[in-house]
Structures are given as structure tokens and as C-alpha cells.
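Narrative progress, year one. The postdoctoral researcher (J.K.) led the effort to move from monomer predictions toward full complexes, under supervision of the PI. The following entry was the first complex the group processed end to end, covering 967 residues in total.
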Amino acid sequence: MPAAGIETGGARPAQSYWNESWERLRANRIGMTAGILIVVLAAIAVMAPLFSLVLTHYQPQTINLDQTFAKPGAAHLLGSDELGRDTLTRLIWGARVSLGVALLTVALSLSVGTTVGMVAGYYGGWIDDVLMRLVDTVLAIPAIFLFILMSILFRPNAFTLAAIIASVGWGSVARLVRGEVLSVKQRDFVVATRSIGASDSRLMVRHLLPNVLPVLIVAASLGVGQIILVEAALDFLGLGIQPPTPSWGNMLTNAQSYFFRSGWLVALPGITIFITVLASNLFGNAIRDAFDPRLKS
Amino acid sequence: MAEAATAKPLTRAWTVNDPLVSVTDLKVWFPVASGVMQRTIAHVHAVDGVDLEIEAGETLGLVGESGCGKSTLGRTIIRLVEPTAGSIKFKGDEITHVRGGRLRALRRDMAMIFQDPYASLDPRQTVGDIIGEPIDVHRLARGKERQDRIRELLRVVGMNPRYADRYPHEFSGGQRQRIGIARALAVEPTFIVCDEPISALDVSIQAQIINLLENLQSKFKLTYLFIAHDLSVVKHISNRIAVMYLGKLMEVAPAAQLYRTPRHPYTGSLLSAIPIPDPAVELRRERILLKGDVASPVNPPSGCRFRTRCPRAKEHCAEEVPPLESFGQEHLAACFYPLEG
Amino acid sequence: MTQPLLQVQDLHTVFSTKEGQVKAVDGVSFELNAGETLGIVGESGCGKSVTALSIIRLQRPGRIVGGKVMFKGQDLTRVSEDEMREIRGREIAMIFQDPMTSLNPVYRVGWQVGEPTRLHNGLDARKAFSSAVSMLGRVGIPSAASRARDYPHQFSGGMRQRAMIAMGLTTTPHVLIADEPTTALDVTIQAQILDLLRDVNRDFGTATILITHNLGVVAGMCQRLIVMYAGKIVEAGPTADVFAHPKHPYTWSLLRSIPRLDAETHEPLKPIEGLPPNLVDLPSGCAFHPRCAFRVEKCSRDVPALLRVGDTQQSACWVTQSGTELKGG
């Protein structure tokens, strides 16, 4: 006779949502390659001084008027610019700026946007109305106007630049989070947790946030590419990081005038930006495929 | 500094012979917004004047079809939905508008089990955390004692205590429902609202859960409000049954009596519509087929709500709302032209 | 003796999943005769829906890997996609469970109901529409002419299901497959729809395959039934006989575990112990044996075949095939 009562089925090992998603991510070759590339770039950026010392033997700001517009070769692996500064070194140090600002911007938009979106979605009512009107307003401000204004008022360094870009970006994060919260809020387990007496803050932090996180991760990884482009564009226009601090964007600012002297000055920063943004988009897609709960069967 | 556990609500002179839950003229209306400015143009009369009493230790079944308001009624009694009007009393205390600390204390005494075993458990938490959360929220136990309680709860609902480290998605629907039941029991409640607890489960599992709920009731002296649309199940598990239609009660009676001598035409047609797994019986049955569909809860019919589908409706039914009248022996029905016994 | 209308012979349909291959339909054989209503009963995952979808070749992403579906002399598993399209909707029609999503919200109901006749019978838009209106009237939709101009969201669940039935019938098919047609509906509406299906079966002579998990529905609607478990048929026979003396422990236990509305006393239910089978990791031998109150040693080793047990029934069970009666406390 079969045993009544206690069930002993289900001998599979405990697998959380995160483990499952990680495995799915690992299985995506293109995505993982892109991800590794980004990690490598980040590592290079962090170790820029080391590279300067060991690999290229140049500092990014070292001017050498004897070796202007050098082609890629033994002395300068990727050539040099109009002031004889080594392009490879500047690209490496530029990575610090681009990736650093991107990371900071993401962190800022996510924290502000999530908080606003969570509160608006959870409480609804007039709080939601007020906050969403605020978001609408922020989203309606033409970004370029804001950037120009900001860069006139402050001298942008990496931190303020990140803050400026984030000030425009947090709005869409807030909208996204609010939408997720609205749908998750309705699910039975949230009502169940309320029914046992949990407080609002407990619900928001312990239940809503972890369930909203996947969507955030996806948005963040897809947004990084965008931010790198925006930041590069700002630098290029002279609204962002100012020379002599090298960034991929401001390396392009003067490069256009010297295009016929050395096409490398345009091509190399351009290609670097392209590869980085492509890698981050591919990785972002892979993350979305792996982590997005809505794509699960 | 040790934090105090949430104390259960103090009750005045309530004894076990008084009704545990007492609902008087309860109304729950939801606004319907429309237009750019989201102005309220109408209301959904989800619960529209319900009087009900639930005795300690009994199982009151609440049946009705979609849109009748039974789920809303259950959630309002347990204060997950705000009532629009009327009063709710629990153990003699008025709880209609309690907030804050008093509401929290109430949450230790009332619990709920949900319909969808896939949506009612947080997919990001382990089973142990899900069951432990009520214990944490009310500070009922810590450390080893907490672990022991969680394990004991799992055992009580028929699951292996080692499952506490697993995640909900690793379990079947029936097992998840057991986890949900364990969570409800964790606060040590007196009263549990069961909102369609078995409708989403396979037929072969439903009986397991029904038996479990019955065993738990006698073991922990629980009172159930059992909400479902399947009258066969409700009749099996309930002492009394209340039939709802469009926000109002049509009939309330002891379970066996409701089946043998229904008074309200809606009850009659509900009973005749339920398929019975017996071909001989099915062939012989007389069906009372209703015409049309359920009317809208936004604009319910005047007088008796059921009159638009009722085969016995007369002019009077449109003019006046029939009150719940007694037909002897705890049997109430709201109908001017009830079925004969 | 007339030929059966539809003959399913040893059908096998599989799904490839991350965890392994799932044999959703694992050697299913049955017949459907003209004019009759056959019930396929089972719980979620037993393969009843996939069987129906395989008949009309809509089983993707599953693959039919064996067996035949004989219909009017043709093997439906082998005909070309074009020929299959001709048959779908015209000769074999299917109604699905969820009327909310089976109708396209952007087209008027009358237009959609008329689609099969436009496709198969070559009717022009106006004639198709009026034939749709008349069919909507026949399935009990009041003011059919004006309702046909409505959009699906203006119809209630019951009415949408009626519209689906109308759509299935416009081409007067030989076979109607109804996959859980009333599961998503309220019980009083369910009674109306089942009544309609009975009328349709009587008036049009359409043979019907009714798929459901509800034994009560089967009892009232079907002359014959088959019971499925883990992709196989475990019991088959005339409805009255199967209910009166079930020959498979699964059917037997299921009938005892359902609360009956007309039960006189409150007896505790006798549930089937254990969990539904994991289709990726089926038990050895008979898939039901871990939950079976009657199992013997052989059951965990050898898969029983579906054989005649008693005069009119078939059962795939070693125990009943060897003559044991199913009884219990």
C-alpha cells in the first residue's frame, strides 16, 4: 500500500532563480564573449597607470612634438596625435572615463529611478500622480539643452557628468519600475504577505524589489551602451570632459580637422567606441535573454 | 533588547458561543474611472449589503459564479480590501476601520489561503522563508525555535521538513498549496479565509488538500470561510453554505438542506447545472437552464438582482428587493416566489 | 458494419525539452464513429490535448514520430500541409478552452465566424457574413444580426464560446473536437454550452471528441470514453460501464476521490496518494504504479498493454487483466 501523508518526491537540488539564469547566460556564447570583452576593457581601464608604465611607456598627456601624426608602428603602437601624444595610451586612459562615467550614471539613475518608481507604483493615488508628473516633466526636457546649460554652469568632471546624464535617464527607469511594481503588486503572494501583517517597507524591500530586479538588470545592461554613446557625444561637442584629460569622445573633437593628416585619429577612437558599445549591447541582450522573467516558458 | 511578539487582539466579553465573525450590511463598491481626468463615472457593486455570521469552529461555504463578489467579501472580512460601508465584527470587536497596531494584532488571528499556487508564493524566497515570514513579522520565535516551528509546520501539512531550503518552482501545484497553508498556519490563527484553494489543482490532488484542510480544522480548532464555485466540494466540506449573486446573498442554509430543498431559484439552477459523475443520474436529471448571462455589477437590475435570468420572475420582483426570509432551521432565502420544498 | 469515421492508430507525439524528451502521446489508439460523442478524460499533462492537436497536426513544437490518423481513407499524419489546411476547419473543426483569447479582438465576431466559409466554401464576404449570422442564431445568440457586428470584447465568456462553436460548425464538419470547452466558464453557462453541444450533435450529426478533466461532464455527454494517464490510454469503454465498474485503478480511485453533490453522508474523501507523474522521468513499468493501491511486483517492471477486460471495456492494468476485482475500504 502506498505510504499516506508525508511526500518524499522531488529530489532535485535547490536551484534559485539566479542560478538558473546564470546557467542560461553561460550557455550564450556570443553574449559571454561580449561580456568577457567588457570585463577585460574594464580591467584595462582600472590598470591604466600600469599599462602606461609597462606596455606603452607613455603617459596620456606626454607631448612629443617630434612625433606628431605618427602612423602605427614600433614607437607608437597605434600612432600619435597632433601633439605627439600616444594614441594607445590615451585610449586606455580614455576607457577609464567612458566606462567610469557609464557605471556611475547607471548607478545614479537606477537608485533614484527605482526609489521613485517603487514608491509611486506601490502607493498609487496622489503620490503616484505627483511623482509621475515629475517624471513626465523630466522626460520632456530636451536633453541637449540641459547638457549645454549644465556644462556652462559647472565644469564637468566625471562625477558631475554622470550626475548630469543620470538626471535625464532616471525618468525612464522610474517608469519601468513603476510598471513592474504595478503588475507584481497584484500577484497573490504580495496580498498573502500583506495578509500576514507585513509592513509596507518590508513588502517593498523584501518582496517587490527582488522581483523587480531582473527587469532592472536588463534595462541597465541595455542602457550602458546608450550612455557610453551619449557621454562620448558630449565630450566630442566640448560639453563633457575637457582636454587634456583624454576621453574617447574628446579625442574625436579635433581629429576631424586633422582627418587628412592622419585618418587614424578619427578611426581609432571611433572603432573603440563602436566595439565597446556593440559588446555592451550584445551582453545586454544576453542578460535579458537569461534573466528576463517574462521570457520564461 | 528583546522585542515583544505581536499580541493577539484583546477581546471583551466574547465567548465561543457568540459568532466569531459578524458582518452587517457590508458594502464594497469599487469606483470605475474613465476619461483623461480619470473621474469616477460609476461603481462596481462588488458586495452590496451582506449580513452574515460565522460561528466559531464551523466551515461556512460561500458559493457563486464569477462576479458575484464572494472573493471580495472574503478579502474584506479579513481587511485586505477596504469596506465602503457596513460593519465587520470579529470576536465581538468592531474591526471595520482598525489600523496600525490593532490591525497587525488582527493579522495574527485571521489568515488567508489563496487560489493560485503558482502566484501565491514569492518565487524569490525559499520555502522556509515563506513560512517563516509570518513568524518574523510578528516576532513569534527566533533562531533554532524558529527553524523548529517551520519544520513542524511543514510536517503538519504533509511535506518533508527538509524542503525548507528549496524554492517554490521546484514543487507541484498541490505541494505549493500545502506551503501556502503552512504559511497561513504560522500565525496561529483562529479564522482562515480559503479563497478557491483547490480550483487550480488537478482533480486527483484536490481530495488530498480537502482532507488536509479538514484534519487541520479539527486539530487546531479553526473556523473556515470556504469560498469556491464548485458546489460539490463546498457541500462536502461546509456546515452551512451561503449563495451569492451580484453582491448579495440569495440563500443561506445548512449544506445538506441546501441540496435537498433549495428555496431560491438561483440555487436550484446552480444545483441542476453541476455535472454529477454518474451517467445514470445525469441522464435522469432535470435541468433548470437559465437564459442569458450574469448582469453587470456596475448597474445591477432593480429589485431582485436575479430576476433577469430567473424562470419564475414576476413583475413584483423588479419593484422590490426581496429580503432574506427564514424558512425554518437556519434556512434563509431572499425570494418572493421561492421553490417548493 | 460501418467504418469508423476517424481511426487513431498507435500515435506517438514527443516534445524535446531542456530536461529531456517528453512522450506526450505514447502509443494511443482509438476510433470515433459517425455521430457519436467520445470523451477523453485525464488530468493536466496526461496528453489529451496533445492527442487532439496531433489529429489536426497542430501539435508544434511537438513532433509526431509514429502511428497513423486515418480519416476518410487518408493518413492525416502523412498528407501535405496544403491538404491538411483543407481538412482543418472544413472537415475537422476544433474549439479551444479559452474563449477570451481564441477570438481575435480586432475583427468583428461575424467576420471571424464567417472566415471558415470564406476559406473553404469560397463564399464571398456578404454571403459568409449572413451564413455566420444564421449560425450564431442557431447557437443561441440573441439578436444575432446585430451581435455579429460586435467585437469579441463586447461578448461575455459564454457567448464567445458559442461564437467559437458557431465558427466550428459553419462548414458542417464531420468531426468536432472540443478541448475543455467549458472549463473557463461559470457552471450555469457551462450547462448551457454543454446543452448546445448535445443539440449540435443531434441536429447536425457531427461526431464529437470532448476533452475534459471533469468526470461529471463526461458522464452527461459521452457515450464512450477513454481515460489517459502519462501519455497512454489506461482505460476505455462505454461510459455507463466505466463508471459502474471501472477496470483501471486510476479511474477507480479517481471516482472515489471526487466529492459528489448527491452524496448522502459526509464520508472523508479517499484521495489518490502521491504526485502526478513527472513526464521527463516516468516511473518504470506502469506509470501509475507508485500511486496505485493494487500494485503488484510486475507493475514496476513491465508496461501493461491496453487489453480487453470484461465484455465491453479495455484496461491497461496487470491486476485487472488477471481477473482481480477492484474493491477497497
